[in-house]
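Troubleshooting log. The previous structure file for this entry was overwritten by mistake, so regenerating from the original sequence record. Sequence copied from the archived sheet and checked twice against the printout by T.R.
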Amino acid sequence: MTPVTNGGPDRLRRMGEFLDTTECARLLKAMADPTRLSILRCLVGGERSVTDLARALKLPQPAVSHHLAILRQAELLTQTRDGRKVIYRLHPSAARHLRDGEDVIELGCCSVSLRKP
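Regenerated output below.
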């Protein structure tokens, strides 16, 4: 698999520390959509392709790709290519900030639950 980068993880390295309000708002804005939260929930369980996510969420692939791009730009996800497939996973810095045994991302400024309702 070939890694595809979208910038450095500098901002997410600060996750778990107290973020300034601008940084916290940026991350919350990226997650402030039911579809994007559903994508993050799916990826807590492990990596998935765009096709797998579209199938799991019962959404058109272009819509899922749009939301993945927003999460990737916020550095909440990373992607790799496996031939023609694009595989997504939680950014290592984001995954590190999951509470042990819980599906909760600690942002420092607040926590975001990824538990299914």
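The two ends are 34 Å apart (CA to CA). Archived copy saved in two places this time.
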